Amino acid sequence: MICVLSGGTGGAKFVDGLRLVMPADELTIIVNTGDDLMWWGLYVSPDIDSITYVLSGMLSRERGWGVKGDTFLCLQAMGQLGEPTWFHAGDRDLAVHLLRSRLMAEGKTLSEATATICQKLSVKARILPMTNSRVETRVDTPAGELSFEEYFVQRWYQDPVKSVRFAGASDAEAAPGVIDAITSADAVLIAPSNPVTSIGPILAVPGIRDALLRARGKIAAVSPIVGSTAVAGPAGILMTAQGLPCSIAGVAQAYEDFLDVLISDSRDARAADDLRQKGLRVECTQTIMRSPEDKASLAREVLASVSGLRDEPAGTAFRRLDQS
């Protein structure tokens, strides 16, 4: 069994690669819910939706989000009624939000609603929200504190970022199955998602970071940074705001207490050598996923990296560094 910690777009590409090279029913994906929002009275979970859509074959590969071939008639009609339209929910996408919202209004948890939707869409992998509690990623900017979707989608991440916090995280509990999935997995993989606002909220839920420290399988992270630039989105901006360098060193620092191996792009070979000299295991490969072949190749490389570490003594790379 393989456990994956993931956000949306980059995570969906990585999960797509994994399902091409291993049975989907051997995958458990723990997904960020810090981006969740109420939209037109509906509960929307963007990252869970992206992972669900990619595993059901519904994801729009052109956009990287939403449902392929979707229409936006409701969006147009809501705009004509004077309602906000900056969050581009498609018509088929809205059907999922409607079902989720009804299930939760009937008393189902987000975990239970997600399981129902996955069953109806024939998703064989197990998708777990990080928590059933409400945790919201908040981005502090000169314009005020924004939800992540306001910052990222509505305002196109143009605002300078002062800091990021995860409202409600300290009082949250990991969703059922999350801790066991991490501690019992043969390997834990951290997708090339934003370390601050995709993986950060997951790690902020009490008990999850401790579970990673106790995991019996090795832990590998794929860097979403190449050189000094994020592959996509505001990861670099947000890392800098949180005091992390925008580099593979910054990615390693974000996960340093539990990481066994960092997977970086081949173009970061020199930076990888620097990290190896400090005691971290780093493997370089092609991490840009433009095609199904790219996704499958990266998935194989990451699985091979953790497989090759199975016989090593317990303890993370950074613990070995501390002892050297």
Tell me what the structure shows.
- There is one protein chain.
- This protein is an alpha/beta fold.
- Helices cover 40% and strands 18% of the residues.
- It contains 14 helices and 14 strands.
- The chain has helices at 9-21, 46-56, 73-80, 91-105, 110-120, 148-154, 178-184, 200-204, 208-214, 235-241, 248-254, 269-277, 292-307, 317-323; strands at 2-6, 27-31, 37-39, 42-44, 126-129, 136-141, 144-147, 163-167, 187-190, 218-222, 225-226, 229-230, 261-265, 281-285.
- Helix 4 (91-105) crosses helix 5 (110-120) and helix 7 packs parallel to helix 9.
- Mean pLDDT is 93; it is low at 314-324.
Helix content: 40-55%
Domain count, please report it.
1
| CATH homologous superfamily caption | CofD-like domains
Succession of helices and strands:
EHEEEHHHHEEEHEHEHHEEEHHEHEHH
Pfam families: CofD (PF01933)
EC number: 2.7.8.28
Protein name: 2-phospho-L-lactate transferase
GO molecular function: LPPG:FO 2-phospho-L-lactate transferase activity; magnesium ion binding
